[in-house]
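Our working data are protein records whose layout never changes between entries. Getting from the letters to the tokens is the skill we practise here. To make this concrete, we reproduce a full record directly below:
***
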Amino acid sequence: MGFLRRLETAFGNNLVISIFQRVVFIFFCSIQMFPVFCFYPVWVLPLHRITNGVFLLYTS
């Protein structure tokens, strides 16, 4: 989480960071049994906030 925070500070809401967060979100989805999260069209929503919440859940 700290590493991601430093990346966000360095690059802001960069497209690369958003894509990276999307990839990590899909990775977490694939290793967890969360079909609601997996198949819900999360790419329509602001993934920046969603993935931050997911990271907080998994790193707390």
